[in-house]
Design a protein that fits this description.
11 strands; 2 domains; alpha/beta; single chain; Rossmann fold; 268 residues
């Protein structure tokens, strides 16, 4: 795993096996246009150079961010494009904005966390979201996962037990134009029956057992992805698929998530 310092110092180019230089952006289809020559510097002293340097620095961060996901096996182009499109720095605390693209979980308000980018991408890829899908998320947090889903699905409903987090996430999502996301402050263990059934359901906190309400609200052919296991130990990402014959379960990677708790928080 690269540290943030290593990322900031990373070059825009890497060498192929034959020693020739290759621009990282050429590896990302929707970023290849950025490899075209830059226009002449701004004639005002220093300003154009500063703006271009900032753009290059931001581009290097994003390229390393995307390439690290690809190196770890993320291959769904739609998911990678969504991860590229959503500004992660808008969903972390201001103190962590400069290192927003580091591949690690970060604290947010109410003692919760924003998951590391790899886990967000992995769970999203396992959901297999389509543009006409209605998606339910349990555990809005800062709204980052909901923003990623909004790029892939027709509509997203996100339930958060902490009112403070729900209000902040709702404002951030609205400010950045994610208008197909609805955030509700409620008990996530009960799901959101008012808009069921859902084509896809994702839970971003660890459940010790599979919440029955969520299975009840999953459409036939639907997929539910959640971390499952003891709160005081590591959990497994589990992928549940509802078929005409019942529900199948696939156990995936090991993770550690904050616990999925019952009820709506009385404070915060």
């Amino acid at each position: 795993m690269h540290s943030y310092l290593q990322k900031r110092c990373a070059p825009e180019f890497e060498r192929d096996a034959d020693g020739s230089l290759r621009d990282w952006r050429s590896l990302i289809p929707w970023r290849r246009k950025e490899t075209q020559p830059m226009p002449p510097d701004d004639p005002r002293p220093g300003q154009g150079q500063q703006e271009q340097a900032f753009g290059r620095e931001e581009s290097v961060d994003r390229m390393e961010f995307l390439l690290s996901l690809r190196r770890r096996g993320m291959s769904d182009a739609a998911v990678l494009r969504a991860m590229d499109a959503v500004p992660r720095e808008a969903f972390v605390l201001p103190a962590f904005a400069a290192s927003a693209y580091a591949d690690r979980a970060m604290p947010i308000a109410c003692g919760q966390t924003i998951s590391q980018p790899y886990v967000v991408a992995y769970m999203t890829e396992q959901l297999e979201v389509q543009q006409d899908h209605r998606v339910l998320e349990i555990g809005t947090g800062s709204g980052y996962q909901a923003a990623i889903l909004s790029q892939l699905a027709g509509e997203v409903y996100s339930v958060e037990r902490y009112r403070t987090l729900a209000e902040t996430a709702r404002a951030t999502l609205e400010r950045h134009g994610y208008h197909n996301v609805t955030v509700i402050a409620s008990d996530g263990l009960h799901g959101l029956a008012a808009h069921a059934p859902y084509d896809r359901i994702i839970v971003t906190a660890a459940a010790e057992t599979i919440p029955p309400a969520l299975l009840d609200q999953l459409a036939e052919g639907g997929i539910l992805v959640l971390p499952l296991g003891r709160h005081d130990d590591a959990q497994r990402i589990v992928k549940l698929t509802r078929t005409a014959d019942g529900v199948t379960q696939q156990d995936l990677i090991w993770v550690r998530f904050v616990p999925l708790l019952p009820g709506q928080a009385r404070e915060l």
